[in-house]
Structures are given as structure tokens and as C-alpha cells.
């Protein structure tokens, strides 16, 4: 039996506040997670020999270290299943971009194998397994846009208005761990309530993130230490695309209330980028921006009804 074209959507942090640090070193966060239509897709084939195989080579990621392999093996260990799986991932979500691609892939593997192996875990049980793989994995299993607290695992569902996004991938990746350990990171943002976000989450202008609630505490650190991300950010701002960084970076996003506004901004930004960096883009060098995406906000994970 095989499951084809399973979606693993990306997420955006509409805001990200660091409000403290636990004794074990983990940071206490508040954020709003938004699912978007930019997605990887996975094919998963049932195996009867218990072997977990990954067909897709991931540059710099060993087979046994890949989150999709680790997710499948953890589900095996947690349930005692004797089945295995052959997993193929078609990547579209940029790695090292703060979009949660690896975590989303792992969540889709857990959701799919729970069905394929008939392990019959409920959503809460699967989220508990996912948390062992990373703080973002439970959100994708939760399957709804969410107000997140704790280390990102304490989730409350939120209803968000229709929004459309232009996502900018700078030509530089950012390692999450290094950003959280940086001495320049402030860890004392005042705690907010979910009702504060609900009242203040509207967009003040149609052309980007100026009206977004709160801020991203990690953004100043990334812009200080990663010059290509800083160049991409500054170029977007000068070009009229008001962006905010998602997660620990490096990807940036601008948000719009109307689809046609997002489409127009995407086309204008792409044309300007090609004009200014035409030779650089062809050579694959010097442009601070690697790729642009246009995508919709999702109301829920496409596989949410599987649990």
C-alpha cells in the first residue's frame, strides 16, 4: 500500500516574542503560527520488513539524522509496530528559512504512518511523540493556526482572516541554535494574552507587515550577524515590500489582505529583482535574494481530518 502526494505545508510566525528562559536553557516563547500553501510533498510506501528507508538525498543530512526517518522510527518504538516504510520527499520549502519544512515533513510522516500502520494514536498522543523531535512538530500535527506559548508546544487554536503572502528566501541560511544562544538576543519581552493578539492582528496597511501585531525578537540578531539576510531585508524595504522575518530566519514575508495585491507585489518585486540582479541571478552569485514565493494562508492542515 502506498500514500501519494501527502502535503507538508510551511508555517509563518506572524510574531515571535522571547519572554524568558527556563533553567534547562530552553527559551520561553509566544508566537502566532500561520499555515501557508507553500508545501513539500511526500510519497510513503508500506514495508513489511520493518525497515525505514529514505529515497531522497538531503544535502548535508545523513540518512539516520533526517527528521522523516527519525519520526518513523520513533513511531515504531512508541507503538511496537513491526511495519516499515519507504519515504520519498519532494522539497519545495527552503531549508534553514524558519518555515518549519523539516518539522512539517516529520509531522506528515507521523500522521500518514499512524494511518498506514493502523497504530490508532489520537492527536494528543501523536503530538507528544512529535515534541520529542522538535518544538514545531506538534503544531503541524495540531493542524490549526495557533497561538503558541511555552517552548512552542502549548497551542491554542485561533481563527485568522484570509491573508496572502509574498515570501522571500535570502541567499543565506541561518542555524536556529546559534541565534537562540546569541548574547545579543533579548529575552525579556513582556508577555501578551491571546486576546491582545486577536485585537491587534489586523493589517494596518495593504502593502505588507507594517500593521502586524508585535515583532520578531530574533530578527535584529539575524540582521546583525548575517549580512546577506540584511541586504535582502533592506532591498525589500527599499523596493516597497514591507517584510518581517519568520522564525529564526532567514526567510522574510510580506502579508496582504487581497490576493490581487499580493500577486501585483510579487510580480513587481520579481521584475525589479531580475532587472537589478539579472547577471548575478544567471551566475548564481551576489544577489541577496535566492527565490520568491507567493502563497495563501491556510485555515487548517490538509491532513487534519486524518486524526
Automatic annotation (TrEMBL):
Molecular function per GO: 4-(cytidine 5'-diphospho)-2-C-methyl-D-erythritol kinase activity; ATP binding
One Pfam family this sequence matches: GHMP_kinases_C
Keywords: ATP-binding, Isoprene biosynthesis, Kinase, Nucleotide-binding, Transferase
Listed EC numbers: 2.7.1.148
Active site: 11, 136
Segments forming domain GHMP kinase C-terminal: 212-268
Binding, ATP: 94-104
Keyword Kinase belongs to the record: yes
Function summary: Catalyzes the phosphorylation of the position 2 hydroxy group of 4-diphosphocytidyl-2C-methyl-D-erythritol.
HAMAP family (UniProt xref): IspE (MF_00061)
Family membership noted in the UniProt record: Belongs to the GHMP kinase family. IspE subfamily.
Protein name: 4-diphosphocytidyl-2-C-methyl-D-erythritol kinase
Natural source organism: Sheuella amnicola
Gene: ispE
Amino acid at each position: 500500500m502506498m500514500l501519494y502526494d501527502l502535503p507538508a505545508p510551511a508555517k509563518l510566525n506572524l510574531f515571535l516574542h522571547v519572554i524568558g528562559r527556563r533553567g534547562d536553557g530552553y527559551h520561553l516563547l509566544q508566537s502566532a503560527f500561520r499555515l501557508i500553501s507553500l508545501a513539500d510533498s511526500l510519497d510513503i510506501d508500506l514495508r513489511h520488513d520493518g525497515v525505514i528507508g529514505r529515497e531522497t538525498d538531503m544535502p548535508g543530512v545523513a540518512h539516520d539524522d533526517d527528521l522523516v526517518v527519525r519520526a518513523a522510527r520513533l513511531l515504531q518504538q512508541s507503538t511496537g509496530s513491526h511495519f516499515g516504510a519507504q519515504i520519498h520527499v519532494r522539497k519545495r520549502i527552503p531549508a534553514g528559512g524558519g518555515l518549519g519544512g523539516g518539522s512539517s515533513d516529520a509531522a506528515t510522516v507521523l500522521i500518514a504512518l499512524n494511518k498506514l500502520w493502523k497504530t490508532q494514536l489520537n492527536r494528543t498522543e501523536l503530538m507528544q511523540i512529535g515534541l520529542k523531535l522538535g518544538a514545531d512538530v506538534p503544531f503541524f500535527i495540531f493542524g490549526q493556526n495557533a497561538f503558541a506559548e511555552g517552548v512552542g508546544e502549548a497551542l491554542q487554536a485561533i481563527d485568522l482572516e484570509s491573508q496572502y503572502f509574498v515570501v522571500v528566501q535570502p541567499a543565506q541560511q541561518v542555524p536556529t541554535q546559534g541565534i537562540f544562544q546569541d548574547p545579543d538576543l533579548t529575552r525579556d519581552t513582556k508577555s501578551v494574552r491571546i486576546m491582545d493578539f486577536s485585537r491587534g492582528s489586523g493589517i494596518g496597511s495593504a502593502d505588507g507587515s507594517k500593521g502586524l501585531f508585535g515583532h520578531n525578537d530574533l530578527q535584529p540578531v539575524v540582521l546583525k550577524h548575517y549580512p546577506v539576510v540584511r541586504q535582502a531585508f533592506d532591498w525589500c524595504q527599499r523596493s516597497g515590500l514591507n517584510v518581517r522575518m519568520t522564525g529564526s530566519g532567514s526567510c522574510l514575508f510580506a502579508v496582504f489582505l487581497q490576493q490581487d495585491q499580493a500577486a501585483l507585489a510579487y510580480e513587481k518585486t520579481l521584475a525589479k529583482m531580475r532587472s537589478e540582479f539579472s547577471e548575478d541571478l544567471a551566475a548564481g552569485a551576489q544577489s541577496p535574494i535566492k527565490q520568491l514565493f507567493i502563497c495563501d494562508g491556510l485555515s487548517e492542515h490538509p491532513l487534519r481530518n486524518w486524526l
